[in-house]
Specification:
Layout: H1 2-5, H2 10-26, H3 35-38, H4 62-66, H5 82-85, H6 88-97
Helix pairs in contact: 2-6
Length: 108
């Protein structure tokens, strides 16, 4: 039924909603959560580390957490437990840093 209605899987919809909420926090659209209290902008360096990706293999590579692809990246939050690693900010921050730089009409 999902395929016939062209609805993305639940996992993709949850990821999209997390990234939308994260964007609102970053842009200051959520007054109860000022971004400077939770997020530290990443220091841009000239050195680029690019992790290797394979279609059929998934690994928890530490380099993946520090990989940045856009100009609005933030320093990853260090996590000691798996429970905290899968919470909103640490998980979404890594996904946010892996987003490509986009050219939206608003920022052009």
């Amino acid at each position: 039924m999902l395929k016939s209605m062209k609805i993305p899987p639940l996992q993709e919809r949850r990821k999209a909603n997390r990234l939308i909420f994260f964007f609102k926090v970053v842009e200051g659209l959520v007054p109860a959560m000022p971004s400077q209290d939770f997020l530290t902008p990443v220091r841009q360096s000239k050195r680029r580390i690019t992790p290797k990706h394979f279609k059929d293999f998934k690994a928890n590579n530490i380099v993946e957490q520090y990989y940045v692809k856009n100009s609005k990246c933030f320093t990853p939050i260090l996590c000691k437990t798996q429970l905290f690693r899968n919470s909103f900010f640490p998980k979404t921050l890594i996904e946010w840093n892996n987003l490509d730089e986009c050219c939206s009409p608003r920022h052009s």
